[in-house]
Amino acid sequence: MLHIVAAPEDDAPPPPAHSEGMEQQVERVCQGGLATWQLRLSQRRMAESLDAPIPLKDVAEACQLSVSQLVRAFRTSVGLTPHQWLINHRLDRAKVLLDGGHPLVDIAAACGFSDQSHFTRTFTRRLGIAPGAWRRSTRKPARSLPALVAPWAMSSDYAVSA
Predict the structure, then answer these.
(1) HSE of 99, CA atoms in CB hemisphere, 13 A
(2) Residues 140, 145, 151, 154, CA torsion sign
(3) What is the pLDDT of residues 83-117, one digit of tens each?
(4) Model confidence over 44-67: pLDDT tens digits?
(5) CB 101 within 8 A of CB 134
(6) How far apart are CA 89 and CA 72, in angstroms?
């Protein structure tokens, strides 16, 4: 059966142009990555749960994917598995808390690690330095006390003779 299609009229508007972002998104999805909304949603869900375990099944369901599809597509989009991404963000948060002088046990709990030992092992393995050593190496030098005497008063021009 042959279908005849009429030629477009000269005054017909051109088809809508795709934005570059849309083309990139389509290409990423075609290559097995996540759509932008899925990537943002999965990252937001995991970021909101830095201090507690988050079942990957819940993230996958929110993205309308199976767990294996989510892991594969997330790795294609980000270059890391969801678990690796989550650990990296937990360690970033831990670094901020270490700068604040918080106890390691509190930092471990606030960053979703089961205990201080697990936190210390993971931190050391990923960053190559123990949390306590990292804290000491990044500690800002203590501020010096303000001078009790103005620097100009120390010059010989202003010296008091006895």
Answers:
(1) 7
(2) negative
(3) 999 999 999 999 999 999 899 999 999 999 999 99
(4) 999 999 999 999 999 999 999 999
(5) no
(6) 19
